[in-house]
Amino acid sequence: MSISSTRGVNYGYSDIYTNWQNLVTERDSVIKAINVFDDNIQTVLDGIQKEVVTARAAKAAETAASNRKQLGWAAGVWIGTLLTVQAALDGADINSLTPGDWMTHAGTIAYGYGFSGYYILDGQLEDADPGCGVPEFNKVIARYPGIIKLKSIYSHLIKEEGTRDPYALLTSQDYPILKSYQLQAMTEDLKSSLSCLSGAVDDTINNLQDLFQTRIDLTEKLLDSLSQEHRIAKQFGYKK
Question: Residue 164: which domain range?
């Protein structure tokens, strides 16, 4: 006795049973891989906030050091300018200075201000606070629960045995292809919200994206395996 598959090929019971066993073995391997990636994703999520804190502190220290350097340079120029004017006036009879002399000294002071006073008096030094950090990271994460909670969203699939159509157990927004689009959007939002850190955590964000995308791909493989098992179950008249 043989059974016709959905592809129009006749299989004997032994062939179908072998195919089913292979699918079960494949499903078990996929589930093991999923568990590994779930753990890896959680590890990265647990550590990325510390990286953001470290990157923020490093950026603040870098900016503060740059400010000190610029301030020191500006102060040196300004002091040098004042000393130049003082040297020119030293011993001179103030009352005998011509308008041209005063214009020369005023020009020297203006020259010095142009190179230094701009920073000292007009507040042009950068704020040492980068302006983004953990709060911005958390806001982005909170907007994408459909990605961050992949493990719980797909947890029921792990328990399936191929007796039901797996896609019937999902809402359309949880289909893997849509999750990939959501993941790309989340990645771009994370990089944008933390751009003040000059890309210091971009590698970690890219790593997180790769882990999530692999998890999504594995979920698609699991769905495919369960779908094939379900077709075999229907051939045997199994209903649940």
Answer: 2-68+129-235
